[in-house]
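Q: My collaborator sent me two sequences in one message, no labels, and asked for predicted structures for both. Can we handle them in order? The first one she listed is below.
A: Yes, handling them in the order given. First sequence, followed by its structure tokens:
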Amino acid sequence: MCIVWEQQPKGGEQPAHLSSSSKQKPVMSIERIDRVGVVGAGTMGNGIAQVAATHGYDVVMRDIKEEFVESGFENIDDSLDRLANRDALEEGPEAIRDRIEGTTALEDLEDCDLVVEAALEDLEVKRDIFDDLEDVCEEDAVLATNTSTLSITSIAADLERPERVIGLHFMNPVPIMEGVEVVVGEKTTGDVVDLAHEVAEDLEKTTWQSDDKPGFVTNRILMPWINEGIRAYERASRRRRTSTPAWNSGRTSRWDHSRWRITSASISVCMPPRRYMRNSEIGTNLRICSSGRSRPTTSGRRPGRGFTSTTEIVRSDCQRCFTA
């Protein structure tokens, strides 16, 4: 299933960069995609690697340190075991796990037909990765980024072949959530767009398509939604009894908002995309609330205690306000 969410050109004509007849070098077809590379073994990276391997693809999962790769495999093993216990797998976890190769060498991605970057949400980091990928990968390989907010066009701006770069924004957790947002850069060709939808749907995901605007579809909705929830608490914290049921029942069919708890950890994850979007055309809607600048009290861990102020004072009542 594919849902297209993008601004159409006047007159109903297809944009030149989306035309399959554009005079560009050919890209990989889905029939020839056997090997998928994933850059980043974190939450999103290992989830993408797991899903690809579950659906029969050979996968190379790369990160900059061996300990990161090992941690990614630990998460994959744990996820596969839980799915197996629920009879949610068509084959054993060992068979799926054996299709995933871990590495710290980017050169090991040279034989990959599709590479999905899932590194830090930092524009310069992603640009450097794609610059290296262009040198390593074959000319017909498709290069995708899992960015949730950053411009696809900007990521690919310095590449010789920006037309093969596309956004494949998986939802978290990847093995569970069915959605994939296909984001089209200014120079992305129609063949690459079609292939991105086909690959995602082959992974049994539902796709929707967005043009290259800050936040795309999901974060353009989600970030103001989270921010407004925080703002509502700041302005009317005495009315918790009315806030809680509205928060917990206000869900849509496309995003399972029950997974989004307003905690210090989720705020930390959302901070980079909100800052990026704050500097864009929709900035006034994303003025970050004071509580939204909070940080976990324990570095690198999710304390599960709601917001913390800049002076490290825990606002535990905010957790009770926004979670069941």
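Q: And the one she listed second?
A: Here it is, processed independently of the first:
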Amino acid sequence: MTPDVRSKAITSLIAFADFGCYTAATLDAMMSVHAAAGMGLGVTYLRLLGAGDAPLPGDARLPDGVRLVERRPIMSEPEPVMPGGRRSHLTIVEVGNVPFDAVAALKPRVLVVGVGNTLLDERRAARALGMVNAPSLGEVRLLRRVRPGQSADEDQPRFHRSVRGAATGARASRAAEVLAVTAPYLRPGDANALVAGMPPAIVVAAGRRLLGALGEDLAGPVRRVLGQCRETTTPTEGPAGTPLGYDVGECGTLRALADDLEAIAAGIGPTASELADAPFLQGWDLDVRTVRSLSGVVDGHPRFPPGRRVRTSELFATDGRTWARTLSRYYRLGTRRTVSRAVKLH
């Protein structure tokens, strides 16, 4: 039975959507549900199901006290969810394959739109946001999704230009802000554990940081609780723009490298978008540390200024002409150096 509800009673409501993968919105929402419940908040988890969307599996588990509501919205009679009697209550909405009118009827304080790490994901999100005109949707926040081992700040300027600019232009009445934090693509084992009600601590920490970043958009007691969450998690966060809950240390770096090597072996890598965001290495040459590497004058590197001669991390793959994949990243190759001389490398 659908609860007796009134939209004006909802003061702290966050909606999660992902135009490229509805499962990603499910994981974002469940990650936030576990984090909010762990902070002592009362939580309602509302899943708006559309065509092709399935209820949570029977073996899915949520924290004690969390109220789960799953429904297929009836557009003529929108029925927002009552948050219950607790003042410190957060309603988390997972937006499935449903019209945005169904979300607008709930009057969320903030709509979080997950954006994948490809240009296609970014353009899809920008186009979908262009069709959203309901002022009752509240603030719109773009949540960038990155894979473990991918440094989120490497192409952050391009991401801002591509998504934020397109979304703002498509929705001239209100800009969509990019969140300072990012969300990880959960590994299969972590995702399965989350659905089973046993999320690893690293996943719960990701949810806490995400809610902490959204606290300013909420009100009342929930805002204060999430503000404390932000204060307690900030000192332990990695560098700005790194994936939530995942470090970009060696394990993640090697996992990303393995993905790229498999793509190269299959003949589908590197892609044009990967090379478009890669640093450019001019006057390059094979170099030797204790392993094979490259040296050259770099441009577009996230750590070194343009024009600096650097030595790369270990070289794993190259076509010898246009691109190279080192331990840490792709490089686009310019002309190869023909004259050897002693230079200082960084």
